[in-house]
Every structure is written in C-alpha cells, then in structure tokens.
C-alpha cells in the first residue's frame, strides 16, 4: 500500500465579461495567495505500508478478516510559520468493499473483484515540538473546521478530507514543523467472494496534498 504525496499551490487568472449585453470594456483579474514560507511533506518508508504475503488459509471464507495495522509517519517542514492542511484523495475509487468516505479501497483482483478496504487514522499530532490537536473540514471555504473526537479518521470524496493542526474555535494554526502518524487498518473480503486461483496484489493508494490556507 503506497501513500503518495505532493505539494499543491494555486493561482487563477479569470476573464470577467457581462453575460446580458455587450460592452466596450472587460476586466482581467489575477488572483493567488502569498504565503510566508514554503512547506515540504515527507513520509517514512516512502509512504509504503507493507502487509506482506497473506495466506488464504488465514482468511475467513465467509466473513471479512481484519489484518494487523501498519503505520507511517508524516513530517511537515516549512521555512516560516505557515497555515497548511493535508488534502486526502482516494486513488482506488470504486474498489472498497465498505461504503463511506472513511473507507479506502485495496484494489481489485485480476477478475475485477474488490479485495477489501482500509481505514487511515491520523494520530499523535505534534506542532513545533509540542502536542497539538487535529481539525478537519470538507473544504477550506468558510469556517467549517471541527475537532474530531479522539483520533482523526482520514476521509475523501465529500467527507472531511482536509486535516490541519489547530482548534475548531481558532481554526488552523501556523506551523514551522509538524508531524503525525497514520495508522492503516486493512480488512480483506471473504475468500468465497475473492475466489483466489492465483496470487493477487493488494494495491491501496491515497494521496496527501499540502494546501496553503
């Protein structure tokens, strides 16, 4: 299972023109965001959670089998105090055997059968060397930040796919260094559903994008 990462910035050039009638002028707008520093994101072990070879005899033929959890650590480093959030994208859409924005797919077999799902749980938030708290939001427009109860389950799609450090009342905090652990909890479909005539590759993947706020 590979968690990939990349750095995201944005700028927009828009052309505004009247819709109802023609006129002799038009307005061009150049918009963007000035940030005090740049940030990088790194995952341990290249973002790979190795589940190893799983023997079919260790899987339940009639029910889902939960596998031991694995984890990766995430480090964020900025050149100056900066407000950032991680945006989560599911890269194996349509392959999860459980519905919901907190469930990520593990890919499909060569015959097109979904292998299972996993949950990705953000834990142990640290910001500038001190324990911190997570806040999550479905988007970064408006004040939609909320503090999850306990650990923060990563979500995608229409869920609370933005994760930042801060409080619900004050919103995201500026950080220079920050870190968290992501615990990956995989579950495999019943073997009577999978029908495994040959080895199959577990292939879960999500992307974490750093977004400047």
TrEMBL record:
Lineage: Bacteria, Pseudomonadati, Pseudomonadota, Gammaproteobacteria, Lysobacterales
Signal sequence coordinates: 1-22
Descriptive protein name: DUF1120 domain-containing protein
InterPro entries: DUF1120 (IPR010546)
UniProt KW keywords: Signal
Domain of life of the organism encoding this protein: Bacteria
């Amino acid at each position: 299972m590979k968690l990939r990462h990349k750095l995201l910035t944005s700028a927009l050039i828009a052309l505004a023109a009247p819709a109802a009638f023609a006129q002799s002028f038009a307005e061009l707008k150049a918009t963007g965001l000035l940030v005090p520093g740049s940030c990088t994101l790194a995952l341990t072990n290249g973002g790979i959670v190795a589940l190893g070879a799983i023997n079919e005899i260790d899987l339940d033929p009639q029910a889902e089998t939960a596998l031991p959890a694995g984890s990766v650590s995430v480090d964020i480093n900025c050149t100056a105090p900066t407000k950032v959030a991680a945006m989560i994208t599911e890269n194996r859409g349509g392959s999860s055997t459980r519905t919901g924005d907190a469930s990520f797919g593990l890919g499909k077999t060569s015959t097109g059968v979904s292998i299972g799902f996993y949950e990705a749980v953000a834990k142990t938030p640290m910001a500038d060397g001190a324990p911190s708290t997570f806040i999550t939001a479905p988007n970064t427009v408006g004040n939609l930040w909320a503090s999850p109860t306990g650990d923060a389950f990563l979500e995608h799609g229409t869920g609370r796919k933005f994760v930042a450090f801060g409080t619900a009342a004050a919103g995201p905090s500026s950080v220079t260094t920050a870190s968290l652990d992501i615990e990956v909890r995989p579950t495999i479909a019943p073997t009577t559903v999978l029908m495994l005539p040959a080895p199959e590759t577990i292939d879960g993947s999500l992307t974490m994008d750093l977004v400047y706020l």
